[in-house]
């Protein structure tokens, strides 16, 4: 195997593939990155039986072939090379890398022991890459981190014709996002559970092209895989074989009061007040007409903070407590200048959603209109002392 390639192109392909390498591989070869040259195409791949990643780049090749090299070391080297073309040659059990005056020789791993990468399932449809990345990031923030509860570490991906719904929960909050897409086959229906961390990382890094293609196995659930591909990159992940919670039954269908919040001002105030909130203690929110008072701390042996923020509030005065981290995560995920928070009682979940400003003189007297169910973030309240 012998080829020449631009340093930036090689470094980017290797770095993207190396992101999916396992930190503690079960067998040594899974720490490797597979380099394959066919014609003038270089494929840079990684696979750990759960997640696969493949990036393809154009090279000037004089000899085709394949070799397996330590992945993280290769990523560090290619990132540090000077800005000159890179010559790569596989010679026996070594890989030689030359770039300007820099030369490296790396040991190779037994390529015959490396597992075959899974093929992409059949194409299900496509979605704009930026819209997909935004939707996944908004939902994945609510996924659980406890691997002993696998059903809570995933993002539920539901397809109903031209509508995709993503949902995730860690039992203390629930995020749901809907968006339109272009299905390959009209009337397509599927529901799968995808590992949240893998999905979030893939969605964030597949934005080099205008759209992302989703591929699903025909079964649509269970032991299948999900494929995601963009320009010159593709990744697969094994689906979680677990039952997701019936989240639609959790989402309140009505509210007794609501507040319209200026997201930037409210977020800044909440961050300041939360500075004195000890771990596990709530941020107290007292809603009255035209304002909310935020409080934290209050005992003799800890700090205290209080700040008022102007909001629009419709309903009877309400005092409710939230985990400050969960509240701030939801505010950061709304992605609008103003947000609406709906309440039923101080002990029942509140629902945060974005609002869009009406264009021109449309709308109800200039009041913001709730975004049409596209993003909702449910947050469980914390019982306040006393």
Strand and helix map with partners:
Blueprint: E1 2-5, H1 7-18, E2 32-38, E3 41-47, E4 51-58, E5 60-63, E6 65-70, H2 71-80, E7 86-91, E8 94-99, E9 102-107, E10 123-128, H3 129-140, E11 154-160, E12 163-169, E13 173-180, E14 182-183, E15 189-195, H4 196-205, E16 211-216, E17 225-230, E18 233-238, E19 257-262, H5 263-274, E20 283-288, E21 291-297, E22 304-310, E23 312-314, E24 318-322, H6 324-334, E25 338-343, E26 350-356, E27 369-370, E28 375-379
Antiparallel strand pairs: 1-5, 1-7, 2-3, 2-6, 3-4, 4-18, 7-8, 8-9, 10-14, 10-16, 11-12, 11-15, 12-13, 13-28, 16-17, 17-18, 19-23, 19-25, 20-21, 20-24, 21-22, 25-26, 26-27, 26-28
Helix pairs in contact: 1-2, 3-4, 5-6
Protein architecture, described:
The protein starts with a strand and ends in a 7-residue tail after the last strand. Helix 1 packs antiparallel against helix 2 and helix 5 runs antiparallel to helix 6. It folds into 3 domains: 106 residues, DNA Polymerase III, Chain A, domain 2 (Roll); 126 residues, DNA Polymerase III, subunit A, domain 2 (DNA Polymerase III, Chain A, domain 2), CATH 3.10.150.10; 128 residues, DNA Polymerase III, subunit A, domain 2 (DNA Polymerase III, Chain A, domain 2, Roll). The chain contains 6 helices and 28 strands. It is of the alpha+beta class and 386 residues long. About 4% of the residues have low confidence. The radius of gyration is 25 Å and the shape is elongated.
């Amino acid at each position: 195997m012998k080829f020449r390639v631009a340093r930036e192109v090689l470094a980017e392909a290797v770095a993207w593939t190396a992101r999916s390498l396992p930190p503690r591989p079960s067998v040594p070869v899974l720490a490797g990155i597979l380099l394959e040259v066919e014609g003038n195409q270089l494929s840079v791949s990684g696979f750990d039986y759960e997640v696969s990643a493949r990036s393809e780049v154009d090279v000037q090749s004089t000899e085709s072939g394949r070799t397996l090299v330590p992945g993280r070391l290769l990523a560090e080297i290619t990132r540090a090379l000077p800005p000159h073309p890179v010559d790569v040659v596989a010679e026996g059990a070594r890989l030689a890398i030359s770039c300007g005056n820099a030369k490296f020789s790396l040991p190779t791993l037994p390529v015959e022991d490396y597992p075959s990468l899974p093929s992409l399932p059949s194409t299900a449809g496509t979605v704009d890459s930026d819209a997909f990345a935004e939707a996944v990031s908004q939902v994945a923030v609510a996924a659980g981190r406890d691997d002993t509860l696998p059903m809570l570490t995933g993002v539920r991906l539901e397809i109903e014709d031209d509508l995709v719904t993503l949902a995730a929960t860690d039992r203390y909050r629930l995020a749901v996002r809907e968006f339109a897409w272009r299905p390959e086959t009209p009337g397509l229906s599927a529901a799968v559970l995808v590992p949240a961390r893998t999905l979030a990382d893939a969605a964030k890094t597949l934005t080099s092209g205008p759209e992302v293609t989703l591929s699903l196995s025909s079964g649509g659930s269970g032991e299948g895989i999900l494929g995601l591909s963009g320009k010159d990159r593709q990744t697969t992940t094994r689906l979680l074989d677990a039952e997701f919670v019936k989240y639609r039954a959790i989402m309140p269908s009505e509210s007794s009061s609501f507040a319209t919040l200026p997201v930037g001002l409210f977020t800044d105030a909440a961050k300041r007040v939360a500075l004195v909130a000890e771990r596990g203690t709530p941020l107290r929110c007292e809603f009255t007409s035209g304002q909310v008072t935020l409080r934290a701390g209050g005992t003799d042996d800890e700090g205290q903070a209080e700040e008022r923020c102007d909001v629009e509030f419709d309903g009877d005065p309400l005092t409710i407590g939230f985990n400050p981290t969960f509240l701030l995560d939801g505010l950061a995920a709304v992605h609008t200048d103003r947000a609406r928070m709906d309440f039923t009682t101080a002990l029942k979940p509140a629902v945060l959603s974005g609002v869009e400003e009406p264009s021109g003189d449309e709308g109800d007297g200039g009041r913001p209109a709730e975004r049409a169910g596209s993003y909702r973030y449910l947050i469980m309240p914390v019982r306040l002392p006393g």
